[in-house]
């Protein structure tokens, strides 16, 4: 069985190929049971979460991700997300690979947002605001730059020090990044706004959004979390990675629905509808679009299969 560590997983998931693999998987007949989501008490710290995410394409591949999210791991200089993905043959059940789960999750999450932005962001988008300075921030900036001509990357974080560190890391990757302190001003300037935070209260105010903005909400993966306010939801055309996931876990969807601000029928489409051509995505230049991502097991399967194939082709196996 092939075992890929974090560096090998990253090298086996190039952005262009990963975005294409995700598009193919969203078009496929992948079977995705509801994931197991277990909150675990951590004495004296924020609660942790265990995720078990199975998926399979009949006769092709089977996979399951076991992921632990420990929000306070940063105080120990450890990643927030720790886990592994087990990939097996869909014909024999033979175990083919174990892929490092944190890197797989970060890259497939960013690539999913970039895939959605191909249908929802303006083709001439040049300025991206990254709200959040965690592991996903660099991945999201790189992924969004694959299919949009992004020239500037504005980075905002609650900690100016962390925002500065993220900017330096982005520059080392060849991205024209700069820190920003005024979130409202940065929102108004951006064409694409990507949020990857653990915020319990809205960060992005609808009143700040200019016409034509694409809002990519990746954090707030629990109903109690939220990155956008009611006005942002009301002004936007709403899209989700999967209805089942967003309606159950995405606070940016769940909370406005509970308040009566949003109704299920207001969700225009999920990502599978976009890639299959059942919905055109953005319909005009001034439309404000909102994509809420909570993650789906088929995304992990797509990434794990690609990582396995790439590693084999490079002789890692």
Automatic annotation (TrEMBL):
InterPro entries: NAD(P)-bd_dom_sf, ODC_Mu_crystall, ODC_N. It comes from the Bacteria. Pfam families: OCD_Mu_crystall (PF02423). One of its GO terms (molecular function) is oxidoreductase activity. The keyword Ribosomal protein does not apply. Keywords: NAD. GO terms for biological process: carboxylic acid metabolic process. GO terms for cellular component: cytoplasm. Belongs to the ornithine cyclodeaminase/mu-crystallin family. This is Ornithine cyclodeaminase family protein. It comes from Neorhizobium lilium.
